[in-house]
Amino acid sequence: MDGSMPSQHISERPKAVVLLSGGLDSTTTLAIAIEEGFAPYALTFRYGQRHEIEIDKARTIARSFSVGQHMVVDFDLRTFGGSALTGDLVVPKGRSADEMATGIPATYVPARNTIFLSFALAWAEVLGANHIFAGMNAIDYSGYPDCRPEYLAAFERMANLATKAAVEGKQNIQIHTPLIQLSKAEIIRRGLALGVDYSMTNSCYDPDLTTGAACGRCDACLLRLKGFAGNGIADPIAYAE
How far is CA 25 from the centre of its chain? Predict the structure, then answer.
């Protein structure tokens, strides 16, 4: 685990733990948390993902937004595998919108968001924070079960039964998912209005390991490109194809 030192300019704003992957959605979520008046503490995971470039992106983004602290937590989900992101399965490429809307793809990582949110809950208790922000989306996404509103509502209920601070009445965890009902185009539009520089971000599941260029054909790339096209602008990151 590593973390940047707290900013010298943290105000008395309410603290919020923000899950920051280095991707488009989480970066927009961070910008929204700040715009809504929270003091963000960014949390990133190195979990054995093939697209580890996102960790460097997250560091750049956290510095750009001057978060209170940025923690990078290490654990290795390659121990279990079961996903194209943490094992030997092939990352799906070139799928149509109908194909992406059907079933759960090989890029699903077993229990990933439950693990991420559990780390966020632990840090929130230590920080004395009542708020967790996450960039889950239930519109333009690949069918992951742990991105659904009912899952997130259930986790929030569990969270308020799980910590010493909550059962003693000192903490009331709220999970904020401001992108949950937005299309990718709407997410990008919201981020641009908040001044997000999307050239800092990476969404690709299978980027070039040498250049960092996005593949342009995985589900994440296709949804991202669709979102920028919906706003009539070019995606500012580099693509291999």
Answer: 6
Q: Are 57 and 22 in contact (CB under 8 A)?
A: yes
Q: What are the CA-CA distances from residue 79 to residues 75, 76, 83, 109 (Å)?
A: 9, 6, 11, 12
| Residue 13 region by backbone torsions, left for phi larger than 0, else alpha for psi between -120 and 50, else beta | beta
Between CA 42 and CA 120 the distance in angstroms is 9
pLDDT tens per residue, range 44-95: 999 999 888 999 999 999 999 989 999 999 999 999 999 999 998 999 999 9
DSSP strand pairing (69-74 vs 2-3): antiparallel
Q: Is the separation of the CB atoms in 100 and 63 below 8 Å?
A: no
- pTM for the whole thing? 0.93
CATH class of 2-202: alpha beta
Query: Exposure pattern of 31-61 as b/e (b: 16+ CB <10 Å)?
Result: bbbbeeebbbbbbbbbbbbbbebbbebbbbb
Domain boundaries, the chain: 2-202
**Interacting residues of 120 by C-beta distance below 8 A, sequence separation 6+:** 17, 19, 43, 132, 134
The answer to whether the CB of 51 falls within 8 A of the CB of 204 is: yes
